[in-house]
Amino acid sequence: MQTTINKKLYNIPDELKDIRLTDFLREYLDLTGVKNGCEMRACGACAILVNNKSMRICHATVKDVENCDVLTIEGMENEDGTLHPLQQAFIDYGAIQCGFCTPGMVLTAHALLLSNNSPTREQIRKALQSNLCRCTGYQQIVDAIEAASVYYK
C-alpha cells in the first residue's frame, strides 16, 4: 500500500497495514510530534491532517490512510527549515507551555485556516473544542491562530 506522509511517498509493507497509525508514525518513521494522549479520541493530542482535514488517529490503523495525503507537525516547516507562520505564532503568543497538546492543536488550527482563512474567534474556539490543553488556557491559542490567519490569505 502507498500513502504520502509529509510530502514523501511511502510504500508500506502489508504486514504493517494493521498496526496503529500513531505507533507507525512514531516508531517506524520517528515522527514523534504525534502524541498518544487519552487513546479514546477525546483529547486531540493525536490529531494530524489527512487530506487537509484534522483527524484524531489514536484508533486509526495504517490502512486507514492508504492513498491519502498525511501531514504531521514535522511536515509543517517551511522549505528553508524555518517554522510555519502558525507554529511561530504559537510561540510568539505564548500558546505553548508543556507542548504535549501543541502538535494536535496546531494541525487542527491549520485545517481550519486552510478551509476558512478569516475565522471569527468563536469559529476558532469551535474548531478547537475537541483539543484539550491543560497548561496554557485557550486565550493565547485563539490569539495565535487569529494572528496567523493573515498568512493564509
Tell me the major beta sheet.
5 strands, mixed
Distance between the termini: 35 Å
Q: What's the CATH architecture name of the largest domain?
A: Roll
The proportion of residues in beta strands is 5-15%
Describe what this molecule looks like in 3D.
This protein has 153 residues and is α+β, with helices and mostly antiparallel strands. The protein has two domains: 2-76, Roll (Ubiquitin-like (UB roll)), CATH 3.10.20; 85-152, [2Fe-2S]-binding domain (DNA polymerase, domain 1, Orthogonal Bundle). Helix content is 31%, strand content 12%. It has a five-stranded mixed sheet with strand order 2-1-5-3-4, covered by helices on one side. α2 (85-92) runs antiparallel to α5. The model has no long low-confidence stretch (mean pLDDT 96).
Distinctive features:
DNA polymerase, domain 1; alpha+beta; 5-stranded mixed β-sheet; Ubiquitin-like (UB roll); 2 domains; 153 residues
Question: How are the SSEs ordered, and which strands pair?
Answer:
Layout (H helix, E strand, L loop, with lengths): L1 E4 L2 E4 L9 H8 L18 E4 L2 E4 L12 E3 L13 H8 L9 H14 L5 H7 L11 H10 L5
Summary, kept brief:
The protein is α+β, with helices and mostly antiparallel strands and 153 residues long. It is 31% helix and 12% strand.
